[in-house]
UniProtKB/TrEMBL annotation:
In the C-terminal section; belongs to the class-I pyridoxal-phosphate-dependent aminotransferase family. One of its GO terms (molecular function) is DNA binding. Residues 11-79 form the HTH gntR-type domain. CDD domains: AAT_like (cd00609), WHTH_GntR (cd07377). This is PLP-dependent aminotransferase family protein. The keyword Transcription applies. Keywords: Aminotransferase, DNA-binding, Pyridoxal phosphate, Transcription, Transcription regulation, Transferase.
Length: 473
């Protein structure tokens, strides 16, 4: 292979070498599993310091592009669908924003299949229509909305900010001051604005592995490097997090600590306190995504949000999507004023204006005298579904009991999760998302149990048991 590196004044040489190696893998000059020259040899061929090559290799390894094995040297990572027996994520593709053909094919197949009669849709992350609380809307006319617009500034519609502050105070017994609260077009926009305003291309962000953030393209398009931190039943593993912080100069830690998407795990209080301490030590802000936080099955066992434990260093994201439906597209961020200013400037620069209509409608819902009763009934109904599923599935599969939210993370008893197994789920009419969509290698699937009625849950469990008997899961 040719090692003539394009040298420009603008790009540091280590980046040019990384680009060269990546391009040669993409165009087939370097093949999966192919060995690279030793660091010393490569430094001599290219004519750079050995420390430059050490940095190149460390970064390429972190991105999953190459792997290093003691005794065998450095080689192009061959952990790809189809090449490996193991169900492994193609990290490079995920990080670079080019999802594999297999991944895209699977999503298309799931979407097509979802149109068929009788399929069990445990894949969508939405609240099902029959559980969306029905709020009556007051008589209003067009001008009321125009009038309401006068009550909106760069942070959103003031009465809604007040209503959200009251909701959080009532449900969590802590205060998100109205002046530190900004309305966004859903939790998704909140994450997008944080990425746009607080991060630069190349920055490193630590997230859980698995995490739903792997399924969002916005990190890839912004050039953000995601580093997955393994989890246990208490949430993100802090020993691994500290390692990532030391290795990659992590700029933010982003996590969804309560009823996590996709595993349903809730971070324990002790882990939350230790996480806060660790991030304070390294002066790293935490982004807490609490999209499911309003859905505990038993409010008495609620673990306090990170924001309540450390108001100064935590940026908090909330959303109404999981309690009144995602079409409402209302989310919020609570952050120090200086940060909110930056976020609202980013929103203005990107022309992402916030319509007054969903804000006024959401305010009607939150101000409805029946709101708390309806929310309590929603939690109870999801809990009934979850309990029914867990009782039926019994000991047949390994899954932990979520204390709230929508998801069950079902560990499969097979050693792998291949495309063939996913096809078998689809043929059986089970729509679900595999672990690799969430950046995880373990054979597991995410099931949205909140979406399923009693009959669907019964059929789902029967089908899973049948598939297990024939060795699919
Ligand atoms: C954990 C988490 N955060 C944020 C979002 C985005 O929420 P929204 O629908 O409010 O944009 C989702 C959506 O599924 C989610 O699961």
């Amino acid at each position: 292979m040719n090692w003539d590196i394009e040298r420009t004044q603008k790009t540091p040489i280590y980046q040019s070498i990384m680009k060269h190696i990546t391009q040669n893998i993409q165009n087939g000059q370097l093949l999966p599993g192919q060995k690279l020259p030793s660091e010393r040899k490569l430094a001599a061929i290219i004519g750079v310091n050995r420390s430059t090559i050490v940095r190149v290799m460390a970064e390429l390894e972190a991105k999953g592009i190459i792997k290093r094995q003691q005794g065998s040297g450095t080689m192009v990572n061959d952990d790809k669908w189809g090449l490996s027996q193991e169900p492994v994520v193609d990290w490079h593709q995920l990080i670079q924003g080019q999802q594999t053909d297999e991944h895209q094919l699977l999503m298309t197949q799931i979407k097509e299949k979802s149109q068929e009669e009788g399929v069990i849709d445990a894949y969508t992350g939405e609240l099902p229509l029959d559980l969306v609380p029905a709020f009556d809307l007051p008589q209003s006319n067009w001008r009321d909305f125009i009038e309401a617009d006068k009550n909106q500034d760069a942070l959103g519609y003031f009465p809604l900010r007040q209503a959200i502050s009251n909701l959080v105070a009532q449900d969590y017994r802590f205060t998100l001051p109205v002046e530190h609260l900004m309305i966004t077009s859903g939790g998704h926009q909140a994450i997008f604005l944080i990425v746009q305003a607080l991060l630069n291309s190349g920055d490193a962000v630590a997230i859980c592995q698995p995490s739903f953030l792997y399924a969002l393209n916005l990190f890839q398009t912004a050039g953000i490097r995601l580093f997955g931190v393994p989890m246990d039943e208490q949430g993100m593993r802090l020993d691994f997090l500290e390692n990532e912080i030391l290795k990659h100069r992590v700029k933010l830690v982003m996590l969804n600590p309560t009823f996590q998407n996709p595993t349903g795990t809730t971070m324990s209080l002790a882990r939350r306190q230790a996480l806060i301490k660790l991030c304070q030590t390294y002066k790293i802000p935490i982004i807490e995504d609490d999209a499911f936080g309003l859905l505990p099955f038993d409010k008495r066992t609620n673990v306090p949000p990170l924001k309540k434990l450390d108001p100064q260093n935590v940026i908090y994201i909330g959303s109404l999507s999981k309690i009144i439906g995602s079409t409402t597209k209302i989310g919020w961020i609570s952050a120090p004023l200086a940060v909110l200013e930056k976020l609202s400037i980013a929103r203005q620069d990107l022309d992402l204006t916030l319509s007054i209509f969903p804000q006024v409608l959401a305010n009607y819902a939150l101000s409805d005298v029946t709101f708390q009763d309806k929310l309590a009934s929603l939690r109870a109904q999801i809990n009934v579904r979850m309990t029914y599923f867990l009782d039926l599935i019994g000991q047949d599969f390994t899954c932990h009991r979520p204390a709230g939210g929508f998801y069950v993370w079902l560990k499969l008893s097979t050693d792998t999760l291949t495309k063939k197994q996913m096809d078998a789920f689809l043929s059986a009419g089970i729509l679900c998302l595999p672990s690799f969509v969430f950046g995880d290698k373990t054979p597991a699937i995410r099931l949205n149990i909140a979406r399923l009625n009693r009959d669907e849950i019964k059929r789902l469990v029967e089908k899973l048991q049948e598939l297990k008997q024939v060795g699919i899961c």
